[in-house]
Design goal:
The chain is an alpha/beta fold. 63% of the residues lie in helices and 8% in strands. The protein contains 9 helices and 6 strands, in the order H-H-H-H-E-H-E-E-E-H-E-H-H-E-H.
């Protein structure tokens, strides 16, 4: 299997791995719905017992409700199906990860064989000292180029792969860095709508939410943890939006979050941290944006204690699309 075939195989395996994110979240949702249903049945049973106790009269029990019994069975079935689905997705993801590692190892082995071939050819053709030296230099140059290509390949794998995988690896360190700012108000906003949100974007939002919520750095995640920016569907990348006149604790928290995510994710041509000047809302030509209350800029201007994290599509997967810097262009951020 040649180099191009191995690269194509790695890309196919990564795409397959990304598609598992949807099924994992679907299975988790089934488990949540099933647990909620079971909780409702427990509350209903307690309520019936409480009513019987309040009456204080021993009487023939009421006939069990068939509908409640059927609904409870459905709830149990949802939990079972959801747990089974999560197990299946975990097994499939582990298998794909193994295949990706094996393909990368084969690609490196192929490149090393090429290096060995160049070195052997140089030794076999060495006749004169000048020729041997030239061949050795050529082999060294080829070795450096191959090492560079391997490094570029590894960087491309990280840059073009899903962001949520990098965030998952960096989550423990990020939680430790952001925990000193526990209680910080933050709003997570995904560009587009629920129907158009790509699985990679949804999984990236989920990892960021897990880092910041009560199980992570214990920040105060507003509005249930997820807001959609339907008018900003073309946004890409991640932005940390904060009022430039916000309290020092809020600005330090925004800076720490921006620096932590920048280290974990591939390099971006745009700065992740966007500070909004409070004077923006006072300019008459910005009235159309001021009237639109549902946007990150107005949120941080109206609440200086708030940090808004906007999550757009993967920028590395849209290199042929024009670079979108909507927040800075629209709102004069600095």
């Amino acid at each position: 299997m040649d180099e191009l075939t191995l690269k194509a195989l790695i890309g196919t395996l990564q795409s397959s791995e990304d598609s598992l994110g949807f099924w994992f979240h679907l299975s988790s949702a089934l488990v949540v719905v099933g647990v909620i249903a079971e909780t409702a049945f427990v509350i209903q049973e307690y309520w019936d017992d409480l009513e019987s106790w309040k009456r204080g009269i021993v009487r023939v029990p009421d006939r069990p409700h068939r509908s409640w019994f059927a609904a409870e069975l459905v709830g149990v079935a949802l939990v079972a199906v959801g747990v089974t689905g999560e197990l299946f997705v975990d097994i499939e993801a582990s298998s794909l990860e193994t295949q990706i590692r094996n393909a990368n190892a084969r690609l490196v082995f192929l490149l090393e064989q090429r290096i060995s071939g160049v070195a052997e050819s140089a030794q076999n053709t060495a006749g004169a000292a000048r020729t041997a030296q030239a061949s050795a230099d050529a082999a060294k140059d080829d070795l450096d180029q191959i090492h560079k290509r391997v490094g570029v390949l590894n960087r491309d794998i990280d840059a073009q792969g899903p962001r949520w995988r990098l965030l998952f690896k960096a989550a423990p360190a990020l939680i430790e860095e952001l925990s000193p700012f526990s209680g910080q108000q933050v709003l997570l906003a995904v560009s587009g709508s629920q129907s158009t949100m790509e699985p990679e974007t949804g999984n990236t939002w989920g990892d960021i939410a897990g880092i910041l919520n009560a199980d992570g750095a214990k920040w105060n995640v507003e509005r249930g943890g997820l807001v959609f920016l339907e008018r900003w569907a073309s946004e890409q990348g991640i932005k940390i939006v904060v009022n430039s006149a916000a309290p020092s604790r809020t600005q330090n928290a925004a800076r720490a979050l921006s620096e932590g995510l920048s280290r974990a994710l591939p390099p971006s041509p745009d700065k992740m941290l966007v500070r909004i000047n409070p004077d923006f809302a006072t300019q008459p030509w910005n009235r159309q944006w001021v009237d639109d209350k549902e946007n990150p800029v107005m949120w941080v201007l109206n609440d200086p204690d708030l940090i808004v994290v906007t999550i757009g599509r993967h920028p590395q997967q849209q290199e042929n699309e024009p670079n979108n810097r909507t927040i800075k262009k629209r709102f004069g951020a600095r």
